[in-house]
Structures are given as C-alpha cells and as structure tokens.
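agent> Task received from the user: take the single chain below, predict its 3D structure, and emit structure tokens. No templates, no multimer pairing.
agent> Plan: (1) validate residues, (2) run structure prediction, (3) serialize to tokens, (4) report one or two observations.
agent> Step 1 OK, no nonstandard residues flagged.
tool_call: predict_structure(input=
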Amino acid sequence: MKLFTSGGNHKIVFAWFVSYMLILFFTSCVNFIAYIPIEQRMEEQNNHYVTELLENRKEEMDNLRTLVNNAAVEISHNETINRLAFSTENLSGNNYYRVVEAAEALAVYKTIESEFQNVYVYFHKLNYCVGLNTSNIAQSYFKVQFGDRQIKQSDWMSLMIENHNGEFIALPSESADYPETVLYLLSLYGTERFVPAATIVIEVNSDKFTPASGAESYNEAFFIINAEGKVFPFGNPTEEARVQEIADTYGVADGISTVGKQIMIANHSENSEWKYLYLVDKSVFQSGIRAARRWIITLNILGIFVVIFIAFLFARKNYQTVQQIINLFGSPQKSEESGFRYIESRISDIVAENQAYSKITEKLQDNVIRSAFLSRLLNERVHISNKEEMLDSLGISFPYPLFQVVLFYIEINDDMFFDNKNDDTEESYRLARLILTNILGDLLAKEEIVAEYCDVEGMLAGIVNLKTEEHIDKFKKIIQKLQEFLLSNFNIRFMAGMSDSYTNSDDLPHCYSEAMSCMEQYFFSSNDVVTYSELENTELTDCYIPRNMEEQLVNGMKVGNYEICVKVLDRIFQENIFASNQSVQAAKIVLYELTAIMIRTIAEQGIIDDENAISDLIHMVDNIGVNMDAKEITRRLQGVMQSFCTKHKQETVQKTDILTDRAKLFVDEHYMEPALTVAMIAENCNVSMAYLSTNFKKRYQSGLLEYINLVRIEHAKKILEDSNDTMERVAELVGYSNMRSFFRMFSRYVGTSPNRYRAMMLAKKKEST
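)
tool_result: status=success, residues=769
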C-alpha cells in the first residue's frame, strides 16, 4: 500500500522521517556524552579502591616495623642479655647459667609467634646463638635453623658480625620448600662503638610483606622502596628489576601517577623512610569501563531500530495535519494540483508579503554583527591577519591616524519626551540611542571625524577616528553641544567618558579601559564630559582596594576569623583612606568598593543577621564627610563584620559536629561489616575522605580508621568475656575478614593476645566468686 498518491507527498513524508532520524542522532549523542562522567566516576572508584588497599597495607607494614623495632630495642636493654654479651669469660661456669637465663628472657616473645618466625641473639665473643627454640654454637645453630634452606653459612656469618643499626635484610632461600626470610638486625655495642658485642636477630616470614586482602592482581603488584631508593627484594629478580627501572625513571611520588602502560599508587611510611606502592595495569582499571561501553553501544543500536519503526508510523500519521491545512486554505482550483503544491502556492503569497520585513531583518542582523565585532575590538586584541578585510566586509572604515574611545551612559527617566509609560527601559534606551547617534552623525558630517558604535555593558560605546590632535578638543566640544541639545529638546541626559588618543587600532582595548575609568565619575558628575587626561590630574585613578587586601578580607569572612578582618580593615583605612592627598571623593570610592565586597561575601554565605545593617552600611557611605566621621565609620563596619563572623563560625561548627556525629553513628552501626572503609563512610556523609578524616580527628582526637578498630576491639573484648565462641567466630562478628588481622589489631590495642585476654578475664571471674 502506497503512503500517498503523489510523488511530492512522498518527499515530504521522507523529510519528516529524516527529521526523526536527526532527533535520534541527537539523543544518541547525548547518551554518549552522559557516558563520559560515568566513565570518570568508575575510574575514580578504582583509584579509591587501590588507594584504600595501599593505605591499609601501609598501616600493617608500619605496625610490623614498630613491633619488630620495639622488640629488638627491648631485648637490647635486657640485663641478662647485656651481662652475657659483655662477659669476659668463655662459655663455661656462670656463662652456661646466663645462657639459660637469656633463653628464658627471649621466651616471652613466644606469645607473639604469629608476628615473628624466630628470635635469637648471636654473642660475638662466645660465637654462640641463643634463640626461642634452641641455643648452640653459631655453626651448629646455623645447621639446625638454615641447613635445609640452602643458605650459605658464610653469608649468614657475615651478617652476624657486621654492624647493624636496625635494618631489614632479605635472606633468600634456594629451597622451594622454604619461603624467603626477612631478617631484622640490631647490633649491641659496648665501649668500642663499631665493634658489636652481640647481634639481635628477628626473623620475619616474607609473606608479612605481601598484601593480605584485595584482588589477586593488586597483590602481585605490591612493592616496597627502601631509604636508598631500592626495591626491597621478595625473590623475583626479574620483576624487581622492572620495578627498580620504573622507580629510577619516573620517581616515586605520593599519590596516583601514570608510568607507561601502568598506574602507580604510592604512599610514604609514617615512621620510616620506606615508600609503598602498587603497580596496576591500566587494563585492570578499565575492565569495568569497557563493559559499560559495550552495554551503552548495544542499547543505542537496539534503540535505533525501535525509533526507526516508530518514526515510520508517525510519518504516516502526521499527514493528517497537512490535510487539515489544505482544508483550512480551501480545496485546490485544479484537480490535478497536488495537496502540497497547493499549500506551496498559498504560502508563497504569504512569503511575498513579508519580503519587505526580511530586508529590515537583514539590516538589523548586519548591525548586530557590526556591533559584536566592534565590541570584540574593544575587549581584546584581535590577532588575525585579515582584520582590515573583515572591517571592509562590514562597511567599516577608519581613514585617519588617531583613535579614541568614548562611552555614553544614557540616563533613562520618566521625563523623556518619548517615554511610553510602560516601564520598558530597554525600548527607551534604544530610542534614546537612535536619537543620539543620528544627531551626533549630523554634527560630525562636516568634520574629519568618523565614529562607529556598539553596545557594551549597558552603555553605548563609540570608536572615534580623528585626523589630527586639534580634532580631539573639537570632538569634546561637539559632545558638550550634543548634551545641551538633547537635554533641551528631548530631555535626554547622558554622561560621556573619553579616553586619550592613540595611533594604532590595536590600542583600542587600552582606550576602552581608560574610558571605563572616566565613567566611574558618574557618582559625582552624572551629566558631564570626563576625559582621561583630566581624570589623571584628580588622583582618583588610584582610589581602589588592592587585590591582595580584598582576597584577605573575603577569606577572613569566609572562615569567620574576625581578628583577620579587623587587621585588613585597619590597613585599608590607613593606606587607602587616611593617606595624604586623598579627597572625600576618593574615600567614598574606596568605601563603596569595601561595602560592595562585604555585602557580596555576606550574600554568598547566606548569613544575614540584621538586614537593616546592610542598608545602614550603604547610607553611611553616602553621608561620609557630612554627619559621619572616620571613627564612627570604623565602628559600624567592625560591628557588621563581628556579627557576621560570630554567626558564620557558629553555623560552621554546628555543621561540622553534625557531620562527625553522623560518621561516628555509621561506624557504631556497621562495625561488623568487613567491607567498612573510610571511603564508604565519606560517601554516606556525601563529603570527601580528606575533609571527613580531618574534622573527625579534630573533634574526637582519633583518626576515623583508628576509631573503626577501637569499636571492633571493644566489642571483641565483650564477646570474649561473655561467650565461648571460637576466635574465628569472634573475628567474624566484629568485622575482621581474617584471623591474622584480628590478632594483630587486638594485640596492638589491648597489649595481649585474644586467647590470653579471655584466660585473664576467666581468672578474674573465678577470683571474684
């Protein structure tokens, strides 16, 4: 079935169909544009996730370093260890007894065997090792502890006799049955500073230096950079060499950075010169983004087919509207004339009637283009090679060597002879502008002066082209004559500001700036002609508040710091109002600007304690020099400022307290969730992690992550006291995903292991009964 009987109708239907397709294309573009912030958001979430992993890992490593260092220092101060280290006897008699005492002194560290693989002390003069599990001469001790690991005895002995100030050293294992071991070594010195009497050794399994949670791809990419900028070895020389090359090439800066095809997230240790970093392939970050992109493309393709079918149906249906138009015009005179041809003939008559209006519209468009181009000449330097050609194409010609800018501020009032009494100030301005430019054109017709006009910032601007310097004074007299003529005949009042003259059209922006400076005199001489040369002699061009003072005042108000605001106000009064050779007019300009800054800042913050104070402020400036002295002005300004700062500070503190209380309540309610992170809490509170963490610590003297662990440990203590649940179950109930993290955090905050704490609590209950 054909859509319509005539070929012309088919064309119109096809045009409709194409228009629907354009709408579809626009909608698809909007979908893809909307995808861009989604993609950025997904990448930010990936960044937050890996940053959170690194932050947790950094905390674990710093805690491990602190634990190991404290244990080594504690051993170094043990009296038994010191007596044996500095003994002059050989391994007999009292020294055998001291060896037993030393072993007993080290036995206390068996309670934290989950953190240390082994602890022993090598005594140099005795060539003897005392450890947690066994004690023997150095060679025999090595065979028992390291014989199966295929570590060279000479390498091990070299480590024992060297000087160590507390450092971690990776001890590689050539046996696949044993993991790599990390040794922490601390030398114990006597009177000879560089000759150690004993070496304290704490063995830590290398798995302590790899992440305990997170995606596997992130675990494999974790590395430690030591104080010398070297990668801490973990047994994969190829991977370590690659990371070392990246660190040497790009450096290791805190935060997120791109290194080749990878993304590096780095952070520094809080208690050492170590740096921790993750290296993640960009593909890991972008996998979710690719999936979202595929979904959007698939849905858009499906939508295209659906809309094409709908567009076809609507194109057919819309022909009914065309038929209604035909009925409105009346039936065609000729039967062979198609419906659309008939509509076309009728509409062509209407178009012919409006051709005259089209010419007027074209002229108006030309004026708009001319005005826009001239406005651009005034506001910026037009660095284009064909500027003259553009001026010619717009019918603009500047035949003379001198350039000047004049600004007209036309005062709209009810007494203007053509006022239409309907409050249409825009129409009144256009009529006044038309009269001014036409009469001024007649006055300049016989002079060697050319003027082109445009509208800028609610004023009429004229670019004046003059032949000689004499024409500058002549042009000013013409403007003054124009003022008198318009006032007496049309009751039109205007002020004019004239710049100095320049010999290059590229200086028009400078001319415009000078003319704007003249227009500032509107406050004091609203019906005058002000030239920039006259303005310079009045010393009013320097009456302003310096930018740095304005910024200091605004920043002080925004943070509610009244002391800073008072200091800035004092500087403004001393340097810009009380300075010598300043007039009352100059003081008014400064105070108007000062009150404008204060009012704008108060309005932006939305804190207006007393609305009458604002109007009083403006009235006060109006009366300066009449019934208001400097002391009263200072007192009133400081009163408004103090009231604002006090109220602003109170509201800021209240908002911060509500935010931190909300974060604390969220932790109290969700502490048992393993996925609870600072990022999750910040997202719930709709603020950044940095802002939330800073204000939380400021109020509760505790970091947000530390508070999470404190809440979990307190609940764990209560469960241990009141139930017989297993340690795995206790860890799960308080939100720890693995036993190692639970034991480590419990020992850190309570000072003992969970098992021992339960035993202590049971013993106390028995004693009380």
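agent> Step 4: summary for the user.
The domain at 362-537 is CATH 3.30.70.270 (Alpha-Beta Plaits).
agent> Done.
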